[in-house]
Amino acid sequence: MNILPDRLRRIYVTLMSLVLLTPVLISCTEIDIESSSTESEISVTATPIVKARSGNVKVTTSAINSRTTTQQTAQTDELEDTGDILIFHTPVEDETYQEVHDIIKESQIFEEIAATINELLILPNDIPVYFMECGEENAYYDPSSVEITMCYELIERYKEIFTEEVETDEEYIAEVINAGLFTFFHELGHALVDQLELPITGREEDVVDEFAAIILLQAGEEGENAVLSGVWQFAVDAEEEAELEELTYWGEHSLDIQRYYNMACLVYGSNPEKYQFLVEDEDLPAERAEGCEYEYAQKSQSWEVLLFPYYKE
């Protein structure tokens, strides 16, 4: 099988470069929120108007800067850019995972995404990312070693699910990569929260789900497809949880069915007209969909504010 075609590689890399620049570009524009008695309209240059629920706010570049905490600003001033995201591909022992290993390694997509992030973000330490066999279906960030592990077993599992109906080699390769992209950005979110000491509120697992979705949803069709792969991953996992009655209400992750609906909401909220089928097919309840456009705008702005101090000049 051929490695990732040049055309598809250019699409991925160009989109990732653009989306990672988005917070900087938005921070240089004026965001004007005009209020009425019941709702307000948020309009951002080159961005469709989004209906917000309430509030009398006028947000400008200076306001975005001022919304970062004093502690965060002080940390940024002291932070040296001495780290990079580094990608490693460990040789496989089980031939079952050889194809996944080869596609991911030869595509160089994760290397090029890492290079883009390294050019844009201040990182205090190297963050190695290891694609490897783990003996289990998993992916995780280890704060003690500052390492991300992406297990071939997990990518292989989702590859088998999402490549059943593909018709071409290009579609097949894209689905294998999509199987890893959402998880990669989820774990990267953990690393950024840890290394940049981002002042998040709420459950970290949910927050980094949102980070992965927002980054990819702003990256055009290929990024959207990767998020949809993530959404269906949660759906598959939720079905298995229900069948096995393994609902871990006490766990650090939300239940997979909750993660599914949260991500489906962000997908819908990013473009309600395009993703109306999620409501029509009852994949997303209409009652939840009503607030998704606002939720997407809110989550996007939150991440823009959090990351703004850490962009290189």
Strand-helix topology:
Layout: H1 6-27, E1 31-35, E2 40-44, E3 47-52, E4 58-59, H2 61-66, H3 70-78, E5 85-89, H4 98-107, H5 109-120, E6 127-132, E7 139-142, E8 147-151, H6 152-162, H7 169-195, H8 204-217, H9 220-244, H10 256-270, H11 277-280, H12 286-289, H13 292-307
Parallel strand pairs: 5-6, 6-8
Antiparallel strand pairs: 1-2, 1-4, 2-3, 7-8
Helix pairs in contact: 1-5, 1-13, 6-7, 7-8, 7-9, 8-9, 8-10, 9-10, 10-13
- Spans of at least 5 consecutive residues with low confidence: 1-11, 17-69
What is the distance, rounded to the nearest whole angstrom, between the alpha carbons of the first and last residues? 42 Å
β content, as a range?
5-15%
Give the helix/strand class.
Answer: alpha/beta
Mean pLDDT: 77
Pfam family, one: DUF4344
Protein name: Metallopeptidase
InterPro entries: DUF4344 (IPR025644)
Organism: Oscillatoria acuminata PCC 6304
Model description:
- The chain is α/β, with parallel strands linked by helices and 313 residues long.
- It has one domain.
- It is built from 13 helices and 8 strands.
- The chain has helices at 6-27, 61-66, 70-78, 98-107, 109-120, 152-162, 169-195, 204-217, 220-244, 256-270, 277-280, 286-289, 292-307, and strands at 31-35, 40-44, 47-52, 58-59, 85-89, 127-132, 139-142, 147-151.
- Strands 3-2-1-4 form a 4-stranded antiparallel sheet. Strands 5-6-8-7 form a 4-stranded mixed sheet.
- Helix 6 packs across helix 7, helix 8 (204-217) packs parallel to helix 10 (256-270) and helix 9 (220-244) runs antiparallel to helix 10.
- It starts with 5 loop residues before the first helix and ends in a 6-residue tail after the last helix.
- Residues 1-11 and 17-69 have low confidence and may be disordered.
